[in-house]
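Reopening this ticket.

The earlier resolution said the output was attached, but the attachment link was broken on my side. Pasting everything inline this time so it's all in one place.
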Amino acid sequence: LTFTISDISHQNQPYILAFSDGNQPGITLPNGLIVPLNGGAILITTIFYGPAVGLTGNVGVLDSNGRATAQFNVPIPGLQGLTLYSAFVTGDNGGNIIAVSPSYNFVIQP
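Inline output:
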């Protein structure tokens, strides 16, 4: 599964794409932005250990057009039918989150 990450207002800025098992209520940041993913093991795992669960390209820097791609290859049998939610944040070079994408859900198919 390929994810196209696009934030044309923040070219050449860092981003993180992550998954969660829910998107409500989300995570409210100190600056008022709401990340539409719920906290938990799936979120933490995909942020910090993405490649270990088949998620690559989820942490990086947007190109000069504000785009990037990530890949998810489901490595763990038994996840078929699971609904996950994806979203990404864009940061500035000081480590502040400056933009948040909407969430998109997908179902893992056999």
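Reporter confirms the inline version is readable. The two ends are 13 Å apart (CA to CA). The first strand starts at residue 2 and ends at 6.
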